[in-house]
Specification:
The protein contains 11 helices and 10 strands. With 302 residues, the chain is an alpha/beta fold. The protein has one domain: Ribokinase (UDP-N-acetylmuramoyl-L-alanine:D-glutamate ligase). The chain has a 10-stranded mixed β-sheet, sandwiched between helices. The longest helix has 23 residues, at 250-272. The relative contact order is 0.16.
Length: 302
């Protein structure tokens, strides 16, 4: 199927979002109804990535949270995120999660709705071995891959629901293209990657292109420069994971995630200025933004 030109991508706007309403679980719904998200992330050098992704998943409205992290940082994460169950996993001398540690997560297979895998993980080679072992275990869950976990795409296409959110540099690394080539035609690159990998791909940038294996593509232009800050991608991965846990399909979760992430940045920019707000502050904006989206939908019904 020939690649579409960027002008053929559909606008990711309010009309598009109305097709994918964020689930209203009702006033009587308990935490089980809003889904269980598993965040597998972090390293000795970047433990905060797991914290950012995990908090974002809860702020998206997920009902339950489990964090699995290297043993050396697990206790710190447990203290920093008292809402979470934290599972320490064995790590290699380099700090990477060992593939055999996946066995610790097997009891969660029938409980987890979505998995966020990769924020803050280092040592690409050993991390890929861990990802290779984990994916078949959670074949019924939507998996959001981030950072070095995305490098598993070199081993073939996916047979389960997967979302990837690379920026241009990461996409260049994954595809073997130059970063300049990716930036020259991001829509084409995202569309071809989605088909090749059989995944939902959000190629982040000044314009974000979301592509599906079917060839369906969407274009979002509402981002801002303040979102280009350390930890912002971890927040987005956790947000998409939280929305997925609540029952949203990959395209809907990814589309809403990109938009809510941008709206949170816009809100902080109005409060603090265009630059200098922190990624950790984004997640605190999500509940009100999600509530406002639901209120607008309710008013349209009335």
């Amino acid at each position: 199927m020939p690649a579409l030109s960027p002008s053929r991508a559909r606008p990711l706007d309010s009309k598009a979002l109305a097709r994918w309403p964020i689930p209203d679980h009702g006033a009587d719904a308990d935490k089980e109804a809003r889904g269980h998200v598993l965040v597998v992330a972090g390293s000795e050098e970047v433990p905060g990535a797991a914290l950012l992704a995990a908090v974002a998943a809860l702020r998206a409205g997920a009902g339950k949270l489990t964090v699995a992290a290297p043993r050396s940082v697990a206790l710190g994460l447990a203290l920093a995120i008292p809402e979470a169950r934290v599972i320490p996993l064995d790590q290699s001398p380099s700090g990477a999660l060992q593939a055999r540690a996946v066995a610790r997560l097997a009891p969660l297979v029938d409980k987890v709705s979505a998995v966020v895998l990769g924020p803050g993980m280092l040592d690409e080679r050993r991390s890929i071995a861990f990802v290779r072992a984990l994916l078949p275990l959670f074949s019924s869950s939507t998996v959001v891959l981030d950072a070095v976990a995305m490098s598993i795409v070199r081993e073939g296409s996916f047979v389960q629901p997967v979302i990837l959110t690379p920026h241009a540099g990461e996409m260049a690394h994954l595809t073997g293209l130059s970063k300049e080539s990716v930036c020259l035609d991001p829509h084409k690159v995202a569309a071809e990657a989605a088909r090749r990998w059989n995944a939902c791909v959000a190629l982040k940038g000044a314009e974000t292109f979301i592509a599906m294996p079917s060839g369906e593509t969407w274009r979002f232009t509402g981002g801002s420069s303040g979102l280009a800050t350390s930890g912002s991608g971890d927040i987005l991965a956790g947000l998409i994971g939280g929305l997925s846990a609540r029952g949203m399909a990959p395209l809907a979760a990814c589309g809403w995630g990109v938009v809510l992430h941008a709206r949170a940045g816009a809100s902080l920019a109005r409060q603090n200025g265009a630059l200098g707000y922190l990624a950790r502050e984004l997640a605190g904006e999500f509940p009100a933004l999600i509530h406002a989206a639901g209120s607008r939908r309710q008013r349209r019904r009335e």
